[in-house]
Design a protein that fits this description.
Number of domains: 2
CATH architecture of the largest domain: Sandwich
Strand content: 35-45%
Oligomer: single chain
Distance between the termini: 35 Å
Structural class: mainly beta
CATH topology of the largest domain: Jelly Rolls
Strand order of the largest sheet: 1-11-10-7-3-4
Number of helices: 3
Shape: elongated
Radius of gyration: 25 Å
Number of strands: 28
Helix content: under 10%
Length: 452
């Protein structure tokens, strides 16, 4: 029998790289939670499908004889994380049926620091076995032993992880054409959010950003352009936060640049960090709209927009050259409003339907999956993607990957994307469209398995 703490006891542990052994032959996960006791998002759940936290401070691995090892480098845990919970669950039976259920913590020298044997488990199917938590400038270990008869779903709800109900796969019969507005209708602009940060899972704070950032607030559009044409700007964009994903080389941040005008013009912004950026553009127009990138020699280079649609809008992907000067040539016959944003403002793909109009830049992180698109326009619909896994150059995009979508007219298409970090680029779209991940995220899949 492991001699150590009993339920409710706690003890100081070194602020070092510790190894935590969980026995015996049971599913194990770690939840990294904030002072409010909640995860910031899926990346704060470390389990067999996502065995390493993006920060690298917490890792999970399987050992011999039914032991699961949790490596926790306490010195590397982000400041926003105040507790690391050690969670166990069963797929069949209850925790009382698990023999020798215990947690043992080893120091850097391999010696046992503290241990806890669970002797009081009953009919629960999930339990917070123990936690490592901050106290008085250091770290402590607590024997928790809090069980959940409603399993991982109940445990998840207590710690900010939401498990949505299963959504049926979209089919033409299940989702009639009328489900989306006609191309000429104006879709309500969805609220924009930044990807959830490493230090806070929803767009909450970046290096140098205030921890107590104000809630999103809309910036009024110019009087001459209808409100529905100009997307709202959340306050979080003004102080972007670092992405909570690995393989993200574009960590340069800047305040959004807003430009307004009417008719043909050159959109010029200086002092930007070199590399890819987003350009939100909305026009009140009934004529032709075109956008070209300009070379340092003021020559037209890449055609980003070529449309005759009324009241055009979209989010463009552009690359700022090494001189830090972004120059775009705009052809327009009415008032327009533009914002230049860091790439960290890319909208996140999830299982929930994401509705938009025109070009867009989306972010996928997680397991390999398919992105399902439903396009209602009558012209070109072109979607490509960029695999950022292993890409280290902060001033360039990698080569776009194959396959891609290049179709004309109303379509239902799926774009396969690999695991890791992927930018999904809706390059051309003159109409409304909807996108969603066809498969659940890894963390949601982990929670859903208890329902299958």
């Amino acid at each position: 029998m492991l001699r150590g703490l009993i339920k409710g006891d706690n003890a100081f542990v070194p602020t070092a790289a510790l190894r935590v052994a969980v026995r015996n032959d049971i599913d194990v996960a770690a939840l990294l939670v904030t002072e409010q006791g909640r995860v910031r998002g899926d990346a704060d759940i470390v389990f067999h499908g996502a065995p390493a936290h993006p920060s690298g401070a917490v890792r999970l691995s399987a050992g011999e004889d039914g032991t699961v090892w949790l490596d926790a480098d306490l010195a590397g845990v982000e400041e926003a994380v105040t507790r690391v919970l050690v969670v166990a669950s069963t797929e069949e039976g209850a925790l009382r049926d698990v023999r020798g259920l215990s947690v043992e913590v080893f120091g850097p020298d391999g010696a046992t620091v503290v241990g806890y044997e669970v002797t009081h488990a009953g009919g629960e199917t999930a339990m917070v076995l123990a936690e490592l938590y901050r106290r008085s400038g250091g770290w402590k270990f607590r024997a928790v032993g809090q069980g959940y008869v409603d399993g991982l779903v109940g445990l998840a709800a207590d710690h900010g992880v939401e498990v949505p109900e299963e959504a049926p796969e979209e089919t033409p019969e299940e989702t009639p054409e009328e489900a989306l507005p006609e191309p000429e209708e104006t879709l309500p602009e969805p609220e924009e959010t930044l990807p959830e940060p490493r230090a806070t899972r929803a767009p909450e704070a970046l290096p140098g950003a205030s921890k107590d950032a104000a809630p999103p607030a809309q910036i009024p559009p110019p009087a001459q352009i209808p409100a529905q044409v100009v997307p709202p700007v959340p306050a979080a964009v003004a102080a972007p936060v670092p992405l909570p994903v690995p393989d993200w080389p574009y960590d340069h941040l800047f305040e959004p640049h807003t430009l307004e005008g009417s008719g043909n013009d050159v959109l010029a912004v200086e002092g930007l960090p070199p590399g890819p950026v987003l350009v939100d553009l909305a026009l009140r127009t009934e004529g032709h709209t075109a956008v070209w990138t300009l070379t340092p020699g003021n020559k037209e280079e890449d055609l980003l927009v070529n449309s005759t649609k009324k009241d055009w809008r979209g989010r463009l992907l552009a690359v700022v050259p090494l001189n830090g000067r972004l120059r775009l040539k705009l052809t327009a016959d009415g008032p327009w409003h533009a914002r230049v944003l860091p790439l960290a403002a890319a909208r996140r793909l999830t299982e929930d339907a994401l509705e938009s109009w025109g070009p867009e830049v989306l972010l996928h992180t997680g397991e390999a999956t398919d992105v399902s698109f439903h396009y209602r326009g009558d012209s070109n619909f072109i979607v490509d993607s960029y695999d950022l896994t292993g890409h280290k150059d902060p001033v360039k995009l990698p080569k776009s990957r194959y396959p891609y979508i290049n179709e004309i007219g109303r379509r239902r298409e799926a774009l396969p994307v690999p695991s890791g970090t992927v930018l999904v680029h809706v390059q051309r779209a003159d109409g409304p469209w909807r996108a969603r991940l066809k498969q659940p995220s890894a963390a949601v899949a982990w929670l859903r398995r208890v329902r299958d």
